[in-house]
Amino acid sequence: MKTSARHAPAKLSRCSDRRGVLSTWMIWIMLAAGVIVGCLFNIIWLSSLRNHAQNCATSAAIAAGHSYLSDDMLRSYQQPFEYDGRVARCKQAAITISNQYRGHSLPAITEQQVEVEWPATQGAVSDPAMLVPSRINVLYDGNSREFQVPLFFSGLTGLGSSRLGVRCGVTLEHAPAAFRPGRNHGIPMLPFAICDDILSTQAGQSTTMSGYWTANIESGKGQDNFSWNSETHQFESGPDGLPEVTVTVYSTTSIGSADAFIPMSFSTSQASTSIPDWIKNGLTFDDLKSLGRDEVSFPGSMPTASITAQNLSACTQALQKKVGEACLVCLCSQSATNGNLTSINLKRPVAARVVQVTNSLSGSAKVVLQPCILTTSTAITSRDPQVAANRYVYSVRPCY
HSE of 210 in the Cβ direction (CA atoms, 13 Å)? Predict the structure, then answer.
């Protein structure tokens, strides 16, 4: 009994030591678990916040790209403050969209967070429409406290905050080599073309007429009687620096007429009755599929159509409903022999709004067009330097 009594304190001491070691390990395990849970919680929180910031920056950058593009880029004579005005306009658009979508979890951006980058080879540009940013960025990033995200469990993790570090940009691509419709949306193209270079051969005589669009629009010789009000989406009387061109839809052959608005066939269906639908819906996926194609390329070719006197009224009414809407118009060259024209050679696309449509006593319709800027996701742009930049057609594409 005395021996057992002597060993009892030693056993109690060893049990106490074990309990102390276990308690210490439990404390460390709990601390480690707390750090792990805190880090995971912060990672999830940061990931969610950065995903929200990425979506917000993308929307703001797209808005900035679209706001930079406007019809005034096509005017021949511009002052430096007009370029500055476009930059200010696109930055304000980014800030406005950001404020609408950021909520209370993201900081407000300022003009310093909207960057406009220019091509390294920008230099002096004679054509004002070619003074186009290579990229517009929206940044949810910076060293200021507003762009530091406070973290949870900073006492455990040792991290009090983290930078958002989010940015998104858009490129303003304007070298379209082709157009490809989607299954649910068509190419906003009118089924008409304007010959910018005509070669007609009849009775052994060759007649060349060139540059109808170029002479009236790009050379500035066309009349300037109308101005487009982007706020009311209506045309008003008076010049705006963008000359108009008047083309004619003939119910007879248009060969040899410089002002001809030549009908094109978008499918193998009855073209004369389908043209009003093509005016309304543009060039659709099913239309191109019937032609055995999936895109319209430049340069390329397109079959022609004909408008009868009976169908001219329906085409005129369809064109009148397009007044004010930006549409693609093809410039082409044609080679006709003995009055036969079955296809035209597409040269390049331009964009225009229908100003007005009037019937003529000669069984034709006069269509007044004004050039404009058109942005479309159906454009397939090229980076080949041999593909010329386009003054009229743009695609605003996000890049990260």
Answer: 5
Q: Name the 3-class secondary structure at 239.
A: coil
User: What is the CA angle 149-64-111, rounded to 5?
Assistant: 50
Whole-number Å distance between alpha carbons of 155 and 340: 85
pLDDT at 389: 85
pLDDT per position as a tens digit, 192-233: 999 887 554 455 555 555 588 988 898 878 899 999 998 899
| Count of residues making up the chain | 400
pTM for this predicted structure: 0.81
Rounded-to-integer distance, Cα 52 and Cα 166, Å: 10
CA dihedral 284, 285, 286, 287 (to 10 degrees): 50
With residue 148 as reference, give the H or E element that holds it: strand 148-150
Q: Which residues does residue 199 pair with via DSSP β-bridges, in sequence order?
A: 208, 335
Q: Is 77 helix (H, G, I), strand (E, B) or coil?
A: coil
**Is residue 68 within 8 Å of 83, Cβ to Cβ?**
no
Q: How many CA atoms are closer than 13 Å to the CA of 281, on its beta-carbon side?
A: 18
